Amino acid sequence: MGEDWNALTDGVCFITDLGQNAGVGGMPAQRYAVWIPEQEAKGGHRIAEVGSNLQELRSKYGVEEEYVFQLQG
To answer: What's 57's DSSP letter?
Structure first.
């Protein structure tokens, strides 16, 4: 996906969907990760928050439905 991915997500918040709520090492299950643009890295992002409530995360960060991506495993 490379360049297409960078062009699609450049400067915008997006959410990745891991496809299941799976906790690790006794930690609570978290299905979604919110990625926000990194100020210092052109085209880079960092994870701002993880959670299990997609609608809450979309609302909080203003992420449109087309910017929710399901990871393929």
So the answer is: H
Contact yes or no for 55/62 (Cβ under 8 A): no
- For 14-67, write each residue's pLDDT tens digit: 999 987 765 566 666 788 999 999 877 666 899 999 999 999 999 999 999 999
User: What type of residue sits at position 56?
Assistant: E
The tokens of 14 are what?
């997006």
Query: Which H helix or E strand runs over 17?
Result: strand 14-17
33: amino acid identity, one letter: A
User: How far is 36 from 12, CA to CA, in rounded Å?
Assistant: 7
